[in-house]
Amino acid sequence: MIRVIYKNGDEDLVTPKFLDILLALNEVDKFQRAGDWVSVASAPLRKQTLSNYAGKERRRHHRSVLQPFAMENQPLRRGEPD
Known about the structure:
The chain is α+β, with helices and mostly antiparallel strands. It has one helix at about 15-25, and strands spanning about 1-5, 10-15, 30-35, 35-40.
């Protein structure tokens, strides 16, 4: 959990994913990183710039390259030799 101070002065503990959301919504004034307080207005933060990336997206799984295993439409018979 990450300690944050909202722009209205309230403090909270949030998950890293929720911190990303709050930062995108510009709701956070400061957050704690490695024990130190980071001011959002003055500190360099990671930004989502994927829209400018022209290469192939490799971090997301869009579709499997494997085809589904084809099963015959016959019921499974137990105890009988193949």
